[in-house]
Design goal:
The chain has about 130 residues and is mainly alpha-helical. It is built from five helices and no strands.
């Protein structure tokens, strides 16, 4: 509230001498005001009218952590692709083994035998 009161007093002091300003000086002040407003509008149009490429480059350089965030994102994407690729390869290998086992002439009851399961575990550890 104190700032508003202070601003009101300044405005009153400036308005107090308005009647004493000569007409030619008043016109020159008005022309200067219009010129300043025109220049301000022109500079605003220049800022808004920048190309998106320039704006993107400025944004890239103004945000300090954007490069690090993009690097982390690329790393995470690479890790995800790697895990996905390895899981597909693992499933493909399991399919090959399952197909070979099912295509063999072994009866299904043999797969339930504990000795056969132990033999499979021993055989897979040798590779």
């Amino acid at each position: 509230m104190n700032e508003e009161r202070y601003a009101y007093r300044i405005r009153q002091a400036l308005n107090h001498g308005i009647a004493d300003i000569p007409l030619t000086a008043s016109r020159r002040l008005e022309a200067a005001r219009h010129l300043a407003l025109a220049r301000q509008k022109q500079s605003m149009h220049e800022v808004v009218g920048t190309s998106s490429r320039t704006l993107g480059i400025k944004l890239f350089h103004q945000t300090p952590y954007l490069k690090q965030a993009l690097a982390i994102l690329a790393l995470l994407l690479g890790m995800w692709i790697s895990f996905y690729w390895h899981s597909i390869q693992y499933v493909t290998e399991l399919e090959d083994v399952d197909s070979a086992l099912l295509a063999d002439d072994i009866p299904p009851e043999a797969f339930m035998d504990n000795d056969f399961i132990e033999w499979l575990k021993d055989d897979s550890s040798e590779e």
